[in-house]
Amino acid sequence: MRQVIGRCEAADVYLGDDLFLGRAVTIKIPHERIVNDAIQLEQFRREAISLAGIHSPNVVGIYDLGLTNAG
Fold first, then answer.
1. 59: number of CA atoms within 13 Å, CB side?
2. Predicted TM-score of the model (pTM)
3. Which residues of the chain have pLDDT under 70?
């Protein structure tokens, strides 16, 4: 991850690099309170799934969704 490019109530957004495909990406990491709340974490996941179905030059594409060892 290169740098923080945004923050909101639920997550921080970073500029990063996809090392396999050689392209810049954004990485949205939910705050710890979201990760530790099963209902909010499920809402975060559903939001990502919904956004993955939108194909628009005005919406950032979603390529992956996952958890780290820390949650």
1. 12
2. 0.80
3. 71
